[in-house]
Specification:
58 residues; alpha+beta; flat
Length: 58
């Protein structure tokens, strides 16, 4: 297996629930929020972008 394939195979998936109406990001399931799931390298930049535009972490 090539190194990049191994990295993709071993990538850690992260999940958060995003409540757009209340501008909340939660790491536990909440009400009407949608679940956002991504590999770790993509997950944190997206979460930090939401925080930078006013989303609260819960």
């Amino acid at each position: 297996m090539m190194n990049t394939q191994r990295e993709l195979h071993n990538a850690i998936r992260k999940s958060a629930w995003i409540d757009v109406a209340n501008r909340i990001v939660s790491f536990q399931q909440i009400g009407e929020a949608s679940c956002y799931t991504a590999d770790e390298p993509e997950f944190w930049p997206h979460i930090m972008e939401l925080v930078s535009v006013g989303y609260r972490l819960q």
